[in-house]
Amino acid sequence: MEIPILKIDNCLVVSIQGSLTDTAALDLQENLARDISQQEPVGVLVDLTAVEIVDSFVAKVLSDISSMSKLMGVKVVVTGIQPGVAITLIELGITLDGIRTALNLQKGVDFLRASY
Amino acid sequence: MESMQEINVHLENEFDIVSARQAVRNLSKSMGFGLVDQTRITTAISELARNIVLYAGEGSIYLRAINNGLRKGIEILASDNGPGIVDINLAMQDGYTTSRGMGTGLPGTKRLMDEFSIQSSPGEGTQVVVRKWLR
């Protein structure tokens, strides 16, 4: 169950669908690191529109993906966090302060486009 | 308290965590919980299920619809025979982790649910019971 990493213009796009296993989340992090290094994108967009829950483990991986991409010199934006997911994350005590987010895919693409 | 239906999910790997999430999502949805409460309950169970797989290796989650005469609700028991928790007060503190996680699992789960109780003793496992009532 590998999550596809797509390239459009000079950005990498990941759309996470449905229920994520822990291994799939960790694999995504490693595969993204590899693709960032090989494909030299300007930005990375991770879309969560189709994700129904984000627990503390997935939040940690998202946070790590964001830090990792920044360290490699690539802008990251996480898009489409659903209302129930946002409320739940706050109650869990997770604010994901270090992560750039956008309301939806379009606004995320606009943000990355504005920066290159 | 009258019990209606009970579902048992055995946990020993990460796919079982996904199964537990799906089972509780389906039950809470069929009971009439709103989307945000479904998300709260499902996330809470994901945290409890991961704790079992991570710390105890295996265990079970029992889901059932409950009724206290006034309100309907959902009750989840997460039970394992793992090493147990030495200091529950410490485990309930935000930011405390022994697994490089975020340290939000147990205190976060408590905030997501209406009722939370935990029993654990070293060498004898851990039992967590959480409830959420229909509004």
From TrEMBL, chain A:
Domain STAS: from-to ranges: 1-112
SUPFAM superfamilies attached to this UniProt entry: SpoIIaa-like
CDD domains named in the record: STAS_RsbR_RsbS_like (cd07041)
UniProt protein name: RsbT antagonist protein RsbS
Upper classification of the organism: Bacteria, Bacillati, Bacillota, Clostridia, Eubacteriales
Automatic annotation (TrEMBL), chain B:
Cited Pfam families: HATPase_c
UniProt entry keywords in alphabetical sequence: Kinase, Transferase
Keyword Ribosomal protein attributed: no
UniProt xrefs under InterPro entries: HATPase_C_sf, HATPase_dom
Catalytic activity, EC: 2.7.11.1
Domain Histidine kinase/HSP90-like ATPase positions: 36-135
Domain of life: Bacteria
GO molecular function, one term: protein serine/threonine kinase activity
Protein name in the entry: Serine/threonine-protein kinase RsbT
Phylogenetic lineage: Bacteria, Bacillati, Bacillota, Clostridia, Eubacteriales
